[in-house]
Specification:
homodimer; alpha/beta; 5-stranded parallel beta sheet; 27% helix
Chain lengths: 457, 457
């Protein structure tokens, strides 16, 4: 059995490793365009900040380690075509500029996504993306090498954009953060996002929301300013953090269906619509277990799980291999300016888009018991379905005990737990970690009352 | 409707408040033996440590506030008898030494527990307990007033004993910690407890495990040393933290059934076996949702929920009041010497006692992504039922991101989730909070393999 893996990051190498362990007879060939395998994309902002020493520190397993494990790993090699009838992939060695073909019995398509970049003059020279470790290393290298970079414009106020904003301010740079949306982080509701904007502003981030980048003004090699539809800001470099677009082109050309989310259509075994071709990671779409939508969610957690499931299915002899990826509930966290930001499930806008009647509650509690020294703050929001009380989503913004607390709401979302039941869960309590009623229990209790459901504690 | 509440702490006052809100016609009378209502017992060690200024800081609502809300609150008043046929409680005013009766339509028995104290000469003079806020205040007062107290012996290595040990060391005292068990914290398995013992020893706690207090040697008012069956240790005061015994006496005398756990038998509406008498809080036994046992668990979280449920049922007109307390899964956390200790469900010993065939895995991970500066340590243990894979329990001991993480395992325990399913949950991930595979997902994955269940990711 010959497996060809296109893309040597989380999804691809997880699948390859599973197949390696399960099938002695498998011949495994990995095609990776960049210089690194299996690295933590989420760690890139911390590398840019300087709190991590070397790019290699983010690498979980190197090409050499995979080779030692019995795989063939071709680095700096790009797949250029797939012929699903002949089961052959055409690949190009980027350094030697030489093309050849790789036959396969099974193909795992784990090409990830590429960063969205607007088509503006000057971005080729002064724009940076931080989508791959190579790119993250280029940005930090530029910041350390160039002393004319004092102010940076970041375009895109999602997780990566905000994390990089903090990283650059920690490096002593001034930061303009530009996003065309009315708020930072569109995965939060406006009320929660507004609180986060205050935190970012206080930290020194200069926010320009509701604005789109329109031009870059440079004097030769020196970037001077960026221009938006509403203003003009000093900037010596531009970081583009506008999200990613799934790299579906080759798979689509080979006949794989692409869903409305822009990701490849796969079943719960990670099989594409073309026989012999599996896909996993940032390139696929996943089922949202809350609203039933199909979403393209680009996160390492999903990539790893999907890679495992794909590997099990690829390695399976007939009748074996019963792993199935159930879907996602949109769990995400980050830490920004010493605040933890966490969310799961649907925002109000998403609930409306999904035509789900909902109730929502918001309140502010403390991160520890209120009587402890420095009890901190946690802003809480929770949504539940109006008729049934089913937990639809939660958002937390706080100074502590937030990230892993969202996971409780994630489990409730994934299992369809109602707020009526949720208020009775035996959640932990001790003064350093919260009040006697966990904030999520309080939220469930308030929502039960808000929706007029029973029992109202 | 006349409600008499015996015991003015979490369970009693929560119930009283619910009835107050739901029934304008209710006449509510609260009988409380001590000086405080509705305080955080879990905060007492922090008050002893000195990180909280006044005992009153731990009080959520004072007698005056309850009176303002329209209740009659008798402080320093003790119930001495219940006549369930005439529906009358006999009470004694402790300051005036005067007895009288209080008639009731509904009686809420929320008398809590009293500390276990061995019958040894000298303990009356040199022994302290920290079960009530009055007692906690007495201990701190003694520590601040007496300069001859340099070394303290603590008897009992449960949550309170260990928290007080840390508090006293932070106050500059030497601490001998004595427990007759072979390990600290019997709610943990021996392997996890041993790790905690190392942490406590490194912090300066002198552990004497497998030893029982047998005598106290004093020179008049000055306590000199404590004697155990295996040694003799300098100590100028003794803190007894040997757990609590439910205060069931009056209820038992009135005919209420007491369960094998020592707590009052109640149904899920918190009704005792005697008509017109409800009970809630540390005095009752609860159903363990993992093993089906009945347990007496003395925790504020349960007291509050049970108080709500009792209040709803007491306030209910016929056909109303559908709140039911579902039971507990044994969730508990604390912070000790900058480590978080958390547990839920069954230990190995408890699983054996319940005759549940189980598998267990233990491993050590990091509190953040491994490549972050100072990634910390988290020791993880998880148990699952051998045949079904059902999550039976988990124990975590770590330097961060532990307390609220145990709640995910608590929800799994409470809902009967299997490790096979658990490994697919969409739990949060970002480098400051852990690796891309949450430690609980790793544990579930390892257990699935350990038990030979499918799918094995």
């Amino acid at each position: 059995m010959r497996l060809v893996v296109i893309g040597g990051d989380a999804a691809g190498m997880t699948a390859a490793s599973v197949v390696r362990r399960r099938r002695d007879d498998a011949d495994i060939v990995v095609i990776e365009r960049g210089h690194y395998t299996s690295y933590s994309m989420c760690g890139i902002p911390y590398y840019v900040a300087g709190s991590i020493g070397q790019p290699e520190d983010l690498v979980a397993r190197s090409p050499a380690e995979f080779r030692d494990a019995g795989m063939t790993v071709h680095m700096r090699t790009e797949a250029t075509a797939i012929d699903p009838d002949r089961r052959v992939v055409t690949v190009r060695d980027l350094d030697r500029d030489a093309e050849r073909t790789e036959p396969y019995d099974a193909l795992l398509y784990a090409t990830g996504a590429h960063p969205r970049v607007p088509d503006l003059p000057g971005l080729d020279r002064h724009g940076y993306v931080v989508h791959t470790l190579d790119e993250g290393a280029q940005l930090r290298d530029a910041l350390e090498r160039r002393d004319d970079v004092r102010t940076v414009a970041i375009v895109g106020a999602g997780y990566i954009g905000l994390e990089v904003a903090e990283a650059l301010i920690e490096r002593g740079l001034a930061v303009h953060l530009i996003d065309r949306g009315p708020h930072v982080m569109r995965t939060l509701d406006a009320d929660m996002a507004a609180r986060l904007e205050k935190i970012l502003s206080d930290f020194g981030v200069q926010l320009h929301l509701g604005e789109s980048l329109t031009a870059i003004h440079a004097d030769g090699s020196h970037c001077r300013e960026v221009v938006t539809d509403r203003g003009c800001y000093e900037a010596n470099a531009v970081v583009l953090a506008m999200g990613g677009t799934p790299n579906v082109a080759l798979a689509r050309a080979a006949g794989c269906d692409v869903g409305p989310s822009g990701g490849l259509v796969v079943d719960n075994r990670m099989r594409t619509t073309v026989p012999g071709v599996w896909a996993a990671g940032d390139v696929v779409e996943s089922r949202d277990l809350v609203a039933g939508r199909r979403l393209n969610v680009q996160l390492g957690t999903h990539a790893n799980k999907q890679g495992k499931v794909a590997g099990i299915d690829i390695a399976a002899h007939p009748g074996e291999g019963d792993a199935a990826f159930p879907g996602v509930v949109g769990t995400a966290v980050t830490r920004l300016c010493d605040w933890d930001v966490a969310r799961v499930g649907l925002t109000e806008r998403e609930a409306k888009d999904a035509r789900i009647a909902y109730g929502a509650v918001s309140f502010t509690g403390t991160a520890t018991a209120g009587y402890m020294p420095d009890p901190g703050v946690v802003h809480v929001k929770m949504l539940a379905q109006r008729e049934t009380g089913r937990v639809l989503g939660a958002q937390l913004l706080g100074t502590g005990n937030v990230a892993k607390r969202i996971d409780v709401a994630a489990v409730w979302c994934q299992l369809g737990v109602t707020v009526q039941d949720a208020q009775f869960f035996d959640l932990s309590y001790a003064p350093p970690f919260g009040g006697v009623w966990d904030l999520l229990l309080v939220a469930a209790r308030k929502l039960t009352a808000e929706l007029g459901l029973s029992p109202q504690l």
